[in-house]
Write a structure and sequence with these properties.
alpha/beta, 6-phosphogluconate dehydrogenase C-terminal fold, Alpha-Beta Plaits, 3 domains, four-stranded parallel beta sheet, four-stranded antiparallel beta sheet, 11 strands, globular, binds nicotinamide-adenine-dinucleotide, binds prephenic acid, oxidoreductase
């Protein structure tokens, strides 16, 4: 039972459900798909994420990938098939409480919640990717009555999608994501919302910084409204703490001396340094190399061929458009020790670069 052989039935073929289907199909696991929205289902099937379920077929595992406040009712239905059931919603204690209230203990044992820490500000099947979970942590949150074989099967799902299972209780999970996901989302929303007061000419000065800080604020407000409401006590406590820190920050900005402000800025630096690196390892010290790329077909391909020949691994990438020239500014994030070598080698190959 611990080996994932399928079929896996995915209910909800939006961004997450379709991405899981694509990842499982790439791993050779049979996948059945369903969705309340026939257009999403048709798109997911045409992308190759799985097939329509045969009538009367019983899956080995059901993955519920619907919005948070709909999860419990879909899980309760799915448990009636006799299969192991997981959901991948962003909050874990609320759906478990709702399912526990209604499911008999024998069925509840087959339900093990989980949550991939990977996603995007986009929604729907067209935004899906088979590589979404590659190297990412994926929380697995068994309750005390969970069957160990069901937990092992959900962990096998996580590995089949290329992610790393991280086991913790539903309550602990919700405390963790309030700080690592829900609060950052709300702070990004505040930073993004104040841009709507800017005059358009001022927005031409939007660089990579504002894009980095606001990206997640583009997420579907209905989805994030449900996520935050489902974890509202913990998120509310964190927001009240931020309000206290905001008052402290306002005083520091008003003060003639920069000492308190620098002390607060240093707390930010410390926060960035405790985020683990790729695959849960220590965070990698990175540096950026900026390359001016002409706005012509094939230029990005030529740049990446050169980087491949120079032999430097690109950890991250951002593209900014130069408002004054037909060119893009590509920021290559690489291991800090390799940044100067990469900049010099690209310069030798004729690229305009800076650090
Ligand atoms: N977006 C992210 O970055 C992210 C990351 C991790 C987990 N999640 C969680 O994954 C779940 C899905 O999020 P998403 O981003 O894929 O959303 P999405 O809007 O892209 O997809 C949700 C899908 O569920 C379908 N649906 C809604 N109610 C249904 C029902 N009763 N039966 C069948 N289908 C139904 C919708 O038609 C839609 O296709 C949410 O619970 C979310 O908290 C999201
Ligand atoms: O947009 C992204 O990059 C995300 O990974 C989104 C993110 C996150 O905060 O990490 C957002 C909510 C989900 O529950 C999980 C992932």
């Amino acid at each position: 039972m611990n080996e994932l052989t399928g079929p896996v039935q995915i209910i909800g073929t939006g961004l997450l459900g379709t991405s899981i289907g694509l990842a499982l199909r790439a791993a050779g696991v049979p996948v059945w798909l369903s969705d309340a929205n026939p257009e999403h289902l048709r798109t997911a099937v045409s992308l190759g994420a799985g097939e329509h379920p045969p009538s009367g077929g019983v899956p080995q595992l059901v993955v519920v990938a619907v919005p948070p406040l709909t999860i419990a009712e879909v899980v309760l239905d799915a448990l009636e098939t006799g299969a192991v059931v997981t959901d991948i919603g962003s909050v874990k204690a609320l759906p478990l409480d709702q399912v526990s209230d209604q499911a008999p203990e024998s069925a509840l044992a087959r339900y093990v919640g989980s949550h991939p820490m990977a996603g995007s500000e986009r929604s729907g099947p067209l935004a899906a990717s088979a590589a979404l979970f590659e190297g990412r942590p994926w929380a697995v949150t068994p309750h005390v009555h969970a069957d160990p074989a069901a937990v092992a099967l959900v962990e096998a799902l996580v590995r089949s999608c290329g992610a790393t299972p991280v086991r913790l209780s539903p309550v602990e999970h919700d405390l963790a994501v309030a700080r690592t996901s829900h609060l950052p989302h709300l702070l990004a929303v505040l930073a993004a919302a104040q841009l709507t007061d800017a005059v358009p000419e001022h927005l031409t000065l939007s660089g990579q910084g504002v894009r980095d800080v606001t990206r997640v604020a583009g997420g579907d407000p209905h989805l994030y409204g449900q996520i935050i409401r489902a974890n509202r006590t913990t998120v509310g406590d964190l927001l009240r703490d931020v309000r206290r820190q905001l008052d402290e920050l306002i005083h520091a900005v008003d003060e003639p001396s920069a000492d308190t402000l620098v002390e607060i800025l240093n707390r930010g630096v410390a926060g960035t340094q405790v985020i683990p690196g790729k695959h849960g390892g220590p965070s990698l010290e990175t540096g950026a190399v900026y390359v001016l790329v002409p706005d012509h077909p094939g230029e990005l391909a030529r740049l990446f061929t050169d980087i491949g020949e120079i032999g430097v691994n690109v950890e991250d990438l951002h593209i900014d458009h130069d408002p004054a020239r037909p060119a893009g500014l590509v920021e290559l994030v690489v291991e800090s020790g390799a940044a100067e070598r990469l900049r010099a080698a690209l310069g030798e190959r004729g690229w305009t670069t800076h650090r």
